[in-house]
Design brief:
The protein is α+β, with helices and mostly antiparallel strands. Among the domains are: 6-92, Roll (Phage tail proteins - horseshoe like beta roll fold); 256-351, no CATH class. The chain contains eight helices and 19 strands. The strands form three sheets. Strands 1, 2, 3, 4, 5, 6, 7, 11, 12, 16, 17, 18 and 19 form a 13-stranded mixed sheet that branches. A three-stranded mixed sheet has the order 8-10-9, with helices on one face. Strand 17 (375-380) and strand 18 (385-399) form a beta hairpin. The radius of gyration is 23 Å and the shape is globular.
């Protein structure tokens, strides 16, 4: 089996097509639907080619025997210039939740489980199974994440990390034993003109989850970002990274996030009903504060991390960037705190975004296909990166006889729900 070989399967007949000259598959943990495009050829029957790859046809894409995507054909166009080749594109099956609206008569009542609420709204779209983890779908796409014992165990991937970064990895909160089957949701109803996926993802986010593809067309996985597993890959430059680029943008990082909510009072400050989440300090939930780079950058400039009351002057040379956010949909203090952490994480994410271009689609050491929602140890001697990072997105491409995979990575816990 060659990992470089992409095949498309027509679900209705089981027929597989492998005369594919170019392709791209893009998946991102933060984007509702994955996208794909392929270029197919049949010099003997170009008209039959166009009739075979019909728009809306349900298909599956495989690398070797590893299932990469379940979706449909959205459209196609001729390459032109006298060529019979056809470019075909589409999205995964979650696109069928993105485009249509949710039925406004759906009612979610207090005490319903998240799984039952989602089934009530998504059943008309063929979703009959709510999966509580993404491991099965991830295994279909990546294959087993394994380590050859003669080369050492998985811990070798973090041996080269700085002590500060190792400490950060240990401080990531333990994985909570929470599932959509047992998680209760508060009263909720669809908003006007709200999309089906938008509604489902909003409901899931209130409980700290996100909607991801499941193992079959009738299933969705309701999961949180996975930061606790060992590093699945070691990415290094010089080394297996063909090209690496780090982008650091601290311009929008707040020093403190202050949230309030109309329906939340328990545990909040009496005046103003504020909830604070700080970027720096021992009580900060920010993973950025645990890194050497984070403390070096934040301590040296003099940060005011607590909320200053009106009329409280501060020295002009100190950095004070409060972010005030009102969340009237939050029903509990826990949900309000989650909103504050999300606001902080959305801006903290930009402090380090690393892009790695890899040769091929799989780790040559383990044979595991590169995937999202897994950890990687990244060492780039030029870009000054030596950290455990989380793979947010992946784009695998093949053209002109060459294969590559572009990964986008961010700091763990700099994306929260």
């Amino acid at each position: 089996m060659s990992e470089e070989k992409l095949t498309l399967e027509f679900e209705a007949t089981g027929e597989r097509w492998d005369r594919i000259t170019e392709f791209d598959i893009e998946d991102d943990f933060l984007v509702p639907s994955d996208a794909w495009s392929i270029t197919v050829v049949d010099d003997q029957d170009p008209v039959g080619l166009r009739r075979k790859f019909r728009p809306l046809e349900p298909v599956r894409l495989y690398l070797g025997e590893r299932l990469q995507l379940i979706g449909r054909i959205d459209g196609h166009e001729g390459v032109g210039g006298g060529s019979s080749a056809l470019r075909v594109w589409g999205r995964d099956y979650l696109a069928e939740l993105v485009d249509p609206n949710i039925d406004p008569s759906i009612r979610v009542t207090s005490g319903m489980s998240l799984a039952d609420a989602l089934l009530a709204g998504l059943g008309v779209f063929g979703i009959t199974d709510i999966q509580g983890d993404v491991d099965a779908a991830r295994a279909q796409k990546m294959g087993p994440v394994r380590y050859r014992t003669e080369q050492g165990d998985a811990r070798r991937y973090i041996d080269g990390l700085s002590p500060d970064t190792q400490a950060m990895a240990q401080l990531i909160p333990p994985r909570e034993v929470r599932t959509p089957v047992t998680e209760e949701v508060p009263d909720a109803k669809p908003k006007d003109n709200e999309g089906a996926f938008e509604w489902a993802n909003r409901l899931a986010a209130r409980a700290g989850f996100t909607i991801q593809p499941g193992t079959a067309r009738n299933a969705v996985a309701v999961v949180a970002p996975d930061y606790r597993n060992e590093a699945a890959f070691r990415l290094a430059y010089p080394g297996n990274i063909k090209h690496g680029r780090a982008r650091r943008d601290w311009g929008s990082l707040p020093t403190v996030v202050i949230t309030s909510g109309r329906f939340v009072t328990a545990g909040l400050e009496a005046k103003g009903q504020w909830r604070e989440v700080r970027t720096v300090g021992d009580d900060s939930p920010s993973a950025l504060w645990q890194t050497e780079e984070g403390r070096r950058s934040l301590q040296d400039v003099g940060v005011v991390s607590a909320r200053l009351r009106p009329g409280s002057p501060k020295a002009a040379d100190l950095l004070y960037r409060p972010l005030y956010y009102r969340d009237d949909e939050a029903k509990t203090a826990e949900q309000l705190e989650r909103s504050a952490r999300r606001m902080l994480a959305d801006r903290m994410r930009k402090t380090l975004e690393y892009t790695a271009t890899m040769a091929g689609f799989s780790d040559p050491f383990t044979g595991t296909t590169y995937g999202t929602n897994v950890m990687a140890h990244v060492v780039d001697e030029v870009e000054d990166v030596n950290e455990l990072l989380w793979i947010q997105s992946r784009r695998i491409s093949h053209r002109d006889g060459g294969s590559s995979c572009e990964l986008k990575l961010i700091r763990p816990a700099s994306f929260v729900l």
